[in-house]
Amino acid sequence: MAKQSEKAELLQGTLDMLILKSLQGGPRHGYSIAQWIGVTTNDALRVEEGSLYPALHRMEKRGWIGASWGQSESNRRAKFYELTRTGKSQLGEQVNMWGRLVSAISLVLDADPAEGQS
C-alpha cells in the first residue's frame, strides 16, 4: 500500500471526470464513489471527503448528476448520485479533452530536447 505522501493529488476537473466515470455504471453513494476510484487505480488515487462532497454538490448544481436518498449496503441512509443526460455529455467532453492533453504531453515527453536549437 502506498504512503499518503505518494498518493496523487487530484485537480478539480480531473476529480469531476473520475466521479462522472464512477457513476457511468449506475448510482453510487459518496463512500462507494471514493472506494471505486481507489480500487480502480490500485489505490494510486485517493479521494478525501473534503474534496469529494463539495465536488458532488457542485456537479449536482450544474445538473451533471442527480441525487436521491436510499439504503447503503450496510443498511444506512445514504445519498445516491447518478448521471444525468447532461452529465453523460460532460463526461464525454472531459474524456476527449483528457485524451488530447495526454497526447500533447506524450509528444513533449517523447521529443528530443536538442532538436530545433540553433
Automatic annotation (TrEMBL):
<dbReference type="InterPro" id="IPR052509">
    <property type="entry name" value="Metal_resp_DNA-bind_regulator"/>
</dbReference>
<protein>
    <submittedName>
        <fullName>Transcriptional regulator</fullName>
    </submittedName>
</protein>
<dbReference type="InterPro" id="IPR036390">
    <property type="entry name" value="WH_DNA-bd_sf"/>
</dbReference>
<feature type="domain" description="Transcription regulator PadR N-terminal">
    <location>
        <begin position="19"/>
        <end position="92"/>
    </location>
</feature>
<dbReference type="InterPro" id="IPR036388">
    <property type="entry name" value="WH-like_DNA-bd_sf"/>
</dbReference>
<dbReference type="InterPro" id="IPR005149">
    <property type="entry name" value="Tscrpt_reg_PadR_N"/>
</dbReference>
<dbReference type="InterPro" id="IPR017799">
    <property type="entry name" value="Tscrpt_reg_PadR_acidobac-type"/>
</dbReference>
<dbReference type="Pfam" id="PF03551">
    <property type="entry name" value="PadR"/>
</dbReference>
